[in-house]
Amino acid sequence: MKRREPLGIDLTPIIDVVFILLIFFIVTSVFKKDELALILDLPKADAKATEVKDDQIFIELNEDKLAIKGIEVSFISLEDNLKEIKDNKKAVIVRIDKNTKYERVVKVLDLLQKYNLNNLALVTEENKN
User: Fold this and answer.
1) What is the mean predicted confidence (pLDDT) over 109-121?
2) Which of 4, 6, 18, 124 could form a disulfide with 45 if both were Cys (CB 3.0 to 4.6 A apart)?
3) Domain assignment of residue 21, yes or no
4) Secondary structure of the chain: what % helix, strand, coil (to 5)?
């Protein structure tokens, strides 16, 4: 006579499915990243770090490109974007490559001043001694 083995649920396929779903959701999920579009070599400074908030405006500038909110634009498009900002108390975070010509920096600063966006912060890298 054969002995009967107790009937039970085989958990191996269920565990496999759970791991596959977990990997799927990790790979397909979009993690929030800073609104950065350009790779910049920032100047070094001894300034202390400040907290970045979601409602801030990010502008990036290098030798030949310009980006606002993570999207590359021209100076005309930048001006159109700045025109649309209603709250002039919003913080404007400007990241400027250290090799950028001063003329391009002044052009961006002039546009910010034109639309009365004076709450300005310049981003640098931490100076490690």
Assistant:
1) 90
2) 124
3) no
4) 30, 20, 50
